[in-house]
Amino acid sequence: MNLLPSGICFYLSVAICWLTAEVDASWWYMGTLGSQVMCDNIPGLVNKQRQLCRQHPKVMQAIGAGMKDWISECQHQFRNHRWNCNTTVRDHNLFGRLLLRSSREVAFVYAISSAGVVYTLARACSQGDLDSCSCDPSKKGSSRDSKGSFDWGGCSDHVEHAMRFSQTFVDAKERKERDARALMNLHNNRAGRKAVKRFMTLECKCHGVSGSCSIRTCWLAMADFRRTGDHLRKRYNGAVQVAVNQYGTGFTAAHTHFKRPSKNDLVYFEDSPDYCIRDHESGSMGTGGRICNRTSRGMDGCEVMCCGRGYDTSRVSRTTKCECKFHWCCAVHCRDCQQQVDVHTCKSQT
Where is the signal peptide, in residue numbers (predicted)? Predict the structure, then answer.
């Protein structure tokens, strides 16, 4: 028995559910009937999504398995923020009522999750995990770059295929709704997909006498997902508050001094809560119990993180590697040393 994120209640569009169920891994290979039963019982999917779920059970499995990667990246990017991309297993979706708002945090969640789907699928294609795709078939023959000519070889990540599938599946609900929130979600989904493609790099292997590189074999590869996360975090910092235009087809800046958003910007409608206190209605988990940095003046500092409520200090013992010595050849031997450190945690609201 394996724990699978069978809840590709992935309805990235409204809930981003993650129902974790104990199911036998062989379910995914039971064929059409098994796929239909499972896909028909995932709440929240529209007909198009159910159809794709039935047709591509291995793709759904790959998406579910890849969810932990983009959630982990989201939590890394906001690890020192009052809102730290925390998830809850007690609610009907990963982020609770947070997703009911149209805040910049929600804009980031949609963008990073959409990017995560593209990255996961492209990687699964390149690794040969899926029957429906493999390496990019268009990268054949010869081409040129600033260094000269090269031959296509290796396995280029098929990002275009992953983007098309992601757009069809993830955007299906929003394309059916077409209200203001749907427009916002579609925009941020697209910004996330474009972010993955933005960091495709040409990797090459040299051939020739004595490594002269007279002949090169190259392929296109996705960069580490951290680069996508860093990029989207910058877009979060510069996210544009918008209003729907008079035709209901696009956005205008919410304030006259704001720039008009580009296709790469993240957009949002509502101001964010301060995330200081636990508030079920806004989806805020509060900062009570969060570790803070007593000497920092930044977002991770105790004054900011704890919202002026103060903090508690406790002394804990940590094991660290010390007195490391290099031994020829070729090992490093260290001792385990105990170190007493002060840990500061935000007081809870009274």
Answer: 1-25
Going by pLDDT thresholds of 50, 70 and 90, the confidence category of residue 34 is low
What are the extents of the domains in the chain?
A: 2-279, 287-346
- Residues 55 and 114: their CA atoms lie apart, in Å, by 20
The 10s digit of each residue's pLDDT in 93-122 is: 677 788 888 999 999 999 999 999 999 999
Q: Which of 315, 91, 128, 114 is nearest to 196 (CA)?
A: 114
In whole numbers, what is the pLDDT of the chain averaged over residues? 85
Q: What band does 54 get if pLDDT is binned at 50, 70 and 90?
A: confident
Residue-wise pLDDT for 199-211, tens only, equals 999 999 988 777 6
State the average pLDDT over residues 263-272.
94
Q: Which CATH class is domain 287-346?
A: alpha beta
Residue 67, token pair as written in the block: 């969810």
Q: At what angle do helices 180-198 and 225-237 cross, to 10 degrees?
A: 140
In angstroms, the CA 122 to CA 130 distance is 10
